[in-house]
Fold this sequence. Notes:
By secondary structure, this protein is mainly α. Helices cover 70% and strands 0% of the residues. The longest helix is centred in the first third of the chain and has 39 residues, at 2-40.
Amino acid sequence: MTNEVAKPATELVRQLTIIIVCAFLLVGVGVLGVYLYQVSDPYVQEVLAAPSDPERGEAIFQINCAGCHGIKADGNVGPSLHNIAERKSKLHLIQQVTSGETPPMPKFQPKPQDMSDLLGYLETL
């Protein structure tokens, strides 16, 4: 009798395992697709190819970002950006700055060199 109970339970575990693996694959493929799209975007390619000047990036930050993130990037209306390069990839940071998808942060698309310089500055925080 225990063998009869174990058989359906084993089948249920097998089916759940298949469902979980398929879900992870779908999420992984979706994330990979977004990543590949971002990497292939001409703007992103130009930003990533440009050498960054962190000092110039700090000036860009002070003009465009310090009002919300604080003069020392330690937070104000927006969050602190200290150690941001450790928490978010360059692709994610570019998307965050340019998308306007995280209100109240406005949509902002600086010139590729300016974005590269801004990334260089953020890496120093």
